Amino acid sequence: MGAAGDGLSVLPDGTPCFVARALPGETVRATPGAKRGDGRAATLIDIVASSPDRVAPPCPHFAQGCGGCTVQHWAPAAQAAWKRDKVREALSRAGYPDAPVTDTVTTAPGHRRRADLALRRGPGGIVAGFHRAGSAEVLDIAACTVLDPRLVDLLTPLRAMLKRLPALRREGSAVVNLLDTGPDLLLRTDGSLAPSDRAMLAAFAAEAGIPRIAWALKDGPAEIAAQIGPATIALSGATIAPAPGAFLQASPEGEAAIVAAVLAALPAKLTGRGRIADLHAGLGTLSIPLAARGRVAAFEGDAAAVAALSGAAGRAGVPVTATRRDLARQPLTVQELIAFAAVVLDPPHAGAAEQVALLARSQVPLVVYVSCNPAALSRDARVFAQAGWRVSTATPIDQFVHSAQTEAVVAFSAARPSKGKAW
């Protein structure tokens, strides 16, 4: 299975061939097509001999080419083993062939609390859904096995409202976060909002039970278009007021799995200075539970997230100090890192090359790396390997079920913690 979830074969001339919807061990007929990376994509014609791990896809839109899922046709146990292997391979390429990788922690479908919907206005009305695999075309969806049903239930009234909204001229998007107070909608359109549009959004918010609707013109800054109540969510017991469209872990269960793996990688109690740095802290998904182990210094580049975390920590009385800092341009220095007994690092998809280079040279005894990209994990882990660090634990987490996305929590321990560092 290729990294993107396509069956991987080899053409007679040795060129890799990626066959969407094919599974390992199968014999298939397929038509090779356009170049893709160092190989060629192929279109599946039929299956001559199927894998015993092939199952009936649970979602009707999978057969229509919805790009939201890639491996619904593969048995869950096989998906979990594949994702574990992706983490093992990433660490092996980095120089850790014997890294202790646990079984994959898999979350249940139907719990995804965030959706990023593409919107199109056409002759038949409003199309709201996900892109077809490998295409800019938007597939109109009526069901989704991975989304929380409360988000699916919002689709029909959302289409009806958008059909009457002049601000959506041809295309836009809708990002919906399911908060504790209800769906939180960020609507982007290709036309400006008239006063009558704002009145329509306010009426829709009241009818659909949406506490807040934010709006932005294309990729411009968002503003609150309608608000009928608070928009908050509890993260590890602290009430956060996120900005519209803010990043959340995909599901409550996925969040809990990541938090549990991070805490399990730390010693029961940090003594001495007892300070923990949480880098790329976001809204404080990890900062707040980490505060039960020691004082937390959270660093995040997004100003709205820093403000939300600071307010939540203050109200909850937890020892978290949040600082705005662009860690790609201004990573914590080796000298600054001396203050911490542990560092938790949850970088964006591209990884954290600038910060990892300094962490590997630092006197911090433990770094817990939360990865959402095995390729970036492998690159960054190689820096730790070359500096003599070891992998003490690695936990694959699948909160994007039926997709190729793989997450992991990896604990790197310094080969020789500096003298005087207390644990």
Fold and architecture overview:
The structure is a single chain. It is built from ten helices and 21 strands. The protein has an eight-stranded mixed β-sheet, sandwiched between helices. A hairpin with an 8-residue loop joins strand 20 (390-398) and strand 21. It is globular and about 65 Å long. The longest helix is centred in the N-terminal third of the chain and has 19 residues, at 76-94. With 423 residues, it is of the alpha/beta class. Helix content is 24%, strand content 30%. It has helices at 76-94, 149-152, 155-163, 195-208, 252-265, 287-290, 303-316, 334-337, 353-359, 374-386; strands at 7-10, 16-19, 27-36, 39-49, 105-106, 114-122, 125-131, 138-140, 171-179, 182-189, 212-217, 223-227, 233-235, 238-240, 275-279, 295-300, 320-324, 342-345, 366-371, 390-398, 407-413. It has three domains: 1-53, OB fold (Dihydrolipoamide Acetyltransferase, E2P), CATH 2.40.50.140; 78-108 and 248-413, Vaccinia Virus protein VP39 (Rossmann fold); 114-235, OB fold (Dihydrolipoamide Acetyltransferase, E2P) (Beta Barrel).
